[in-house]
Amino acid sequence: MRRLALILLPCAVAVLVHLWLAQRPSSTPPDSSTHSALLSFSNTDESLPFYEVLVGVLSARHHYELRQAIRETWLGYLRDHPLFQHRVGVKFIVGEHGCLIPEEDREDPYSCSLLNFTEPVAGRDAEIEIVRVPDPSMLASSDASAIALDFKVLHPVVITRLGVFSSGTQSELQSNVTVKLLQLDQEEAVVTARFSAISTGTLVSGLWYKPVEQFILPKGFEGTLVWENMASTGLTIVNSSVQLNDGGGVLKISSIAEGILPHRSARGFPGLAGGFTFTIYEETHYGLSGLLWGRPARMEHHASMLRQEDAALQQESLRHGDMVFVDVVDTYRNVPSKLLQFYKWSVGNADFNLLLKTDDDCYIDVDSVLMKIDHKGLKRSNFWWGNFRQSWAVDRIGKWQELEYASPAYPAFACGSGYVVSRDLVQWLASNADQLKAYQGEDVSMGIWMAAVGPHKYQDPGWLCEKECYLDMLSSPQHTAEELHILWDRKRACQDPCGCPWGH
């Protein structure tokens, strides 16, 4: 009997060891040898790779040099370090799709919206009226003493006249009205016209017009037209269903439909209490017609370049195995959606305690980050570690334009150069990714999303918000590939990325 037990004991031990290993999370990085595997949002293998820290690096499709600089600096250090290589996993987050529209044919550099021009009907230098009122029944009285219309210039124009609707069926003016053209978020008017019963201007197509000093409004100009009744009584407005003339797409005019919520800094209620005339400014002889004529060739060339970019990205992914392709068009405006898609990927393809988000132009002091996690006991739940901006004003124009967040300031948000969140927060974001609204930037979007959860914020100025250098920094943004190498070389030489005593 004892002999039988001795024979069976090794078998029992082997079975127990096998069961223990099967249940233990694997510390080996996931197999990323194929492009299709990187696109998967769920790992069919029950044993997910385990990392204490999973790092997601937001990267634009064409930023190969920055990705390579990171691979040759702090990522390479992690990969080769015997203690860190299984403790930290790093993935570059790349949009699966490039924008199909050439840059010259986009509304702005930050999105993938086509400049939807049509061939101008009017001849060169012909004045275009944005609205005509052939029937006085299209007009109505409003209680508002200030009406505003926002617009954006998509091709250079020149405003030639400002106009106001008559205040009666006899095409007369019964009150004093001032019309101003302003650049958004500017106090001083670009041009102004004043109307009164004794100074009406010229009646054209149901509107009283006055000429104004002519300025070229360049592509990208964002303006607002404001009609003000100086007597604080109501203005005459046009029916919101009226068709406005945008000059074949050279202007993007805001909606005047009923029920529109005014922007928090609007100078009046959305609507139209008059009009204006403009000409299309042409810098060259071919102008807008030439731009439209050359579009098919540009589109074909751009499509060819995208195919080459796709092939290069696939080869890069096969070579390095550190890229996650998410199902978004890779533009600046889509970065928040890009981040949410990575969160969905992360919870389905890796087991981790903390997630560090950074950008591909950022230096990261990985030693200091891991040391703080250990020494400060930062493996917590409902936890957000970063350098937080508070009461940050919401921009109405430019790259960081935000038109849909109603408050004048954002909730507290961590600077995007680097922050760390606990897995439970990532899980919540991933679970709600399809319902969460993407705002203009991923850092402010994260602040808005997290405001619904109320995580514990751990403030740390070591995550730098601007391109600076300090000995004790955890991250520093906005660097070139060459600068990332220089910072890392100094760090390895003398432990100071900002410079060594001997001038390294």
What keywords describe this structure?
Spore Coat Polysaccharide Biosynthesis Protein SpsA, Chain A; elongated; 2 domains; Jelly Rolls; glycoprotein; Glyco_trans_31; alpha+beta; endoplasmic reticulum; six-stranded antiparallel sheet; glycosyltransferase; membrane; 11 helices
Characterize the largest beta sheet: strand count, sense, and whether it forms a barrel: 7 strands, mixed
Number of helices: 11
Proportion of strand residues: 15-25%
CATH class of the largest domain: Alpha Beta
- Number of E-state strands: 25
What sort of overall outline do the alpha carbons produce when their principal axes are compared?
elongated
**Order of strands side by side in the largest beta sheet?**
17-2-1-18-23-20-24
Structural class: alpha+beta
What number of structural domains do the residues give?
Answer: 2
Kindly report how far apart the N and C termini lie. 74 Å
Fraction of residues in helix: 25-40%
Mean pLDDT: 87
Give me the Rg, rounded.
30 Å
CATH topology of the largest domain: Spore Coat Polysaccharide Biosynthesis Protein SpsA, Chain A
Low-confidence parts lasting 5 or more residues at pLDDT below 50? 1-40
CATH architecture name of the largest domain: Alpha-Beta Complex
Oligomer: single chain
Signal peptide: 1-22
EC number: 2.4.1.-
Main location: endoplasmic reticulum
InterPro entries: Glyco_trans_31
Structural account:
Its EC number is 2.4.1.-. It holds the Pfam family Galactosyl_T. The protein is of the alpha+beta class. The chain folds into two domains: 49-107 and 285-380 and 414-504, Spore Coat Polysaccharide Biosynthesis Protein SpsA, Chain A (Alpha-Beta Complex); 128-281, PHR domain (Jelly Rolls). The chain is built from eleven helices and 25 strands. The strands form six sheets. Strands 17-2-1-18-23-20-24 form a seven-stranded mixed beta sheet, with helices on both faces. The longest helix has 26 residues, at 295-320. The relative contact order is 0.15. Mean pLDDT is 87; it is low at 1-40.
